[in-house]
Each structure stands twice: as structure tokens, then as C-alpha cells.
Write a structure and sequence with these properties.
Elements (H helix, E strand, L loop, with lengths): L11 E7 L2 H9 L7 E7 L6 E5 L2 E5 L1 H4 L2 E5 L1
Antiparallel strand pairs: 1-2, 1-5, 2-3, 3-4
């Protein structure tokens, strides 16, 4: 299973699902819908948090949260 936390800077992915039901509601409200393309754009010096482009804006989150978002590479 590939997750958003597995992407490297500049890589694209498509959201396919979530592993955390409670966190998924918050992510859905922020535009992280299944089928949405995401691009990892930055990460902090020690790797956490990360920044990604999703639904036309930049979203930051912790790697722990990103690991709950299942994706497929594009």
C-alpha cells in the first residue's frame, strides 16, 4: 500500500482512500477527495511537516497524517 508519506518532492499521486476514518472527515473537508491529484512540493528540514498542492492550494500536514492517505503514483 502506497501512502502520501511515501512520495518524494515533485512526485504526483492520486488519492485512492484513507485508513483513518476520523481523520478522513477532516481531510475530505480540506479537498482531499478520492480521485484528486496531489503533488508533494516541500518538506521541513527534518522531514516533518510536509507541504503538498491539492485542489489548487498548498496544504501542510504531518507525515503521520499523510501516512493515512492511500494513493497511486501518476
Amino acid at each position: 500500500m502506497l501512502t502520501l508519506a511515501d512520495l518524494r518532492i515533485g512526485e504526483h499521486g492520486e488519492i485512492t482512500g484513507f485508513t483513518d476514518e476520523i481523520l478522513s472527515l477532516k481531510l475530505l473537508e480540506m479537498g482531499c477527495l478520492p480521485g484528486t491529484e496531489v503533488i508533494l512540493t516541500h518538506h521541513a528540514p527534518f522531514g516533518d511537516p510536509i507541504a503538498l498542492k491539492v485542489s489548487g492550494y498548498t496544504l501542510t500536514m504531518r507525515r503521520e497524517e499523510a501516512a493515512t492517505i492511500q494513493i497511486k503514483r501518476k
